[in-house]
Specification:
There is one protein chain. By secondary structure, the chain is an alpha+beta fold. The chain has a 5-stranded mixed β-sheet, sandwiched between helices. Helix 9 links the parallel strand 3 and strand 4. Helix 2 crosses helix 3, helix 6 runs antiparallel to helix 7 and helix 8 packs across helix 9. It is elongated and about 65 Å long.
């Protein structure tokens, strides 16, 4: 049955207009993006197939070009549309962080980091450089590693902070495995970088670890351990 033949309240577009985007399932939102299905499948059914194949919306977004285009009904045009949509969302969040202090928008920071790092298949270490009012100057990729680790050099982090004329920073890296629990190495690195950056009057506000669909603070983890 075509979506056009569904009851009006069940159609994704009409449902979004009536109830808002957050009332729709992942499959329904994807169906609106896809617009049409393929022979024998509605857009919603095609969306469900994508979710089943790639595991989640994040999995679809991070799917390699060839794997994505191999799905019947997809193709290069849809791949480009997906990537463009994610980049637009990233830029909207970056704009919001550059206009007001990031400490006032913690959820925006987390969303931005998930969009920026959640699709990466190797560990990536980044810095969100901030001005004296804690507004975003720029997100900078500092180091890329392997599936399980990346090497971070404090001297290079300090050099980058000076080049950006930053007053503060939020550090972040991803765990491609999906786990966001900070390791002892993560905690030790955070402390080393805090000490190194303090020498040039740059404050480390947080060190976030990005996994699949969530973000964890290594700094808050260290603080809780200190209270024990």
């Amino acid at each position: 049955m075509s979506i056009k033949d569904w009851p009006t309240d069940d159609r994704p577009r009409e449902k979004l207009l009536a109830l808002g985007a957050d009332a729709l399932s992942d499959a329904e939102l994807l169906a609106i993006f896809l617009r049409v299905g393929v022979v024998g499948k509605s857009a919603v059914e095609l969306a469900r197939e994508l979710l089943q194949r790639f595991g989640s919306v994040a999995g679809i977004v991070s799917a390699p070009h060839d794997e994505f285009c191999a799905v019947h009904g997809m193709g290069e045009a849809k791949f480009v549309q997906f990537q463009a949509s994610i980049e637009l969302a990233r830029r909207a969040l970056a704009s919001a962080m550059s206009e007001r202090p990031v400490l006032n928008t913690p959820d925006i920071v987390k969303d931005y980091l998930r969009l920026s790092l959640g699709h990466e298949r190797v560990e990536v270490f980044v810095a969100l450089w901030l001005d004296a009012q804690h507004r975003l100057i720029e997100m900078q990729i500092l180091f890329r590693g392997t599936l399980t680790q990346t090497s971070v050099y404090p001297r290079e982090v300090v050099r980058a902070a000076l080049a950006k004329n930053a007053a503060a920073v939020i550090l972040a890296h991803n765990h491609p495995s999906g786990s966001t629990a900070p390791s002892q190495a993560d905690r030790s690195l955070t402390q080393v970088l805090k000490s190194a950056l303090a020498l040039v009057d740059v404050t480390v506000l947080d060190h976030c670890i990005v996994g699949r669909g969530e973000t964890h603070s290594a700094v808050r983890s260290m603080a809780m351990m200190g209270d024990m």
